[in-house]
Design brief:
- The chain has 8 helices and 30 strands.
- A 6-stranded antiparallel β-sheet has the order 2-1-4-9-6-7. Strands 3-11-10-5-8 form a 5-stranded mixed β-sheet, with no helix packed on it.
Amino acid sequence: MSPKKIHGAVAALSALALLTACTPADSDPDATRDGAKTAEAAAEPVFRIGSVSEAEAAQATEQGLSAKASNSTASATPTSTQTSAPQQTGEVVEPGAETTAAPGERISLSVENAALSDISITESDHPRIKTDPGVFFDTAGSELEAADSTEDAKAGSSTPSESASEDSDAITAPDDAAAWMSAYDLVADSTYELSVTATSADGEEHDFTSTVTVSAGDASPMAVRTILSDDQTVGVGAPIILTFGSTVAKKYRDDVEHRLSVKVTDNDGKKRKVEGSWAWLPDDPQSRLHFRPKEFWPAHSKVSVDVPLKNVPTTDDTVGQNDLTLDFDIGRKQVVKADAKTHRMVVTRDGKEVMNFPASLGAAKSPSYNGTHVVMSKASDYTMTSEQWDYETDVRWAVRIHNNGEFIHAAPWSTGVQGSANVSHGCINLSTERAKQYYDSAIFGDPVEITGSNATLSTAASDISDWVYEWDDWKKMSALPTS
């Protein structure tokens, strides 16, 4: 959750009704303690549900931070002259009752006479979305550290390979949790199922459920698309690419990203654990959101992507226009390794060498670029043009590997030096027969790794620069917290 939203949550919850039991007056201290325990055990938990807008949270910021600071110096154990009783907000709600909220608000929940044990919130139309982790607070309104510290329990988990039901497991509350607020804005025209367990002082567990209905909004729609197709077979380096109709505001990117899921299975449907992460690439000028695994995808896998973004805020005035799903296949693991020093291009498929060709890479003045490229497209006939080098040339069997003009293609004019010298304008030159053989084998997403050059790829000037980033740098471009 962004710092702005955390501060808003702290501010809002400082005003929740987090009432502790007052100690009854008695001349005998032991009788006082026993009486308090009996009263506490007998009292039924009281649940309150409210909704907090960003404007309300902003107005309460100063009050909430002041309350948190003063509470930090107070005794941890209330006495007969000390009780935590902030202003009451939210309404008492009976189990199973329905409440309403407006788009963009967040749900707040508090309990009296008990402590929260766990909580989950599920969007009825999209049960695959991970449970909102929210923020927990104690009776003083101070934020508590989340109890769940495992990778899969965090909203920013970069291992999205679990099933829908596992992703929706309840979040365990930390000790002394008396209140909770959702971390993400509520989506217009949606219904949320809230499920809570609270434990009273006598150890008894109390279950609480409620349905929160969010009204429809009037924001303008923003489309989301993907370049891949259902049932398409791609290479092990293919990223998942989402493009938006305009720019997604940074403050809403976590709301978008936390809803996305990626599931990987083998061809028999058995789940495969794949570590990966979404990343917001520089706007171009529309927003681009890519997913790549830490290492290449496991070959011969199936990938299922769920992108439920209809009515999800993307700016103050726009929301997602559509939901999107995508199911595609990862094919064989074919990797090209081209070396500018040895002047060879070697192709391996599932670990076995299938091609080893003499090649000519970029000349010293126009070098090929070291780094991992990805097959982007291919054409049997293509016209190469360059304003920088002032040429226009028709070529056969052209496989694009970068937006900077790098291709693998037939170059019969350089056959005499292929294998011994680099004379191209950055492309990998092969004979016509060899270029055709490679062309026939190449698919979108195949990695092409170039070494031995005096120039290196940057993360700019490409639709697909995903593998140029170091893994830790890639994860930092996610809008969600990382471990």
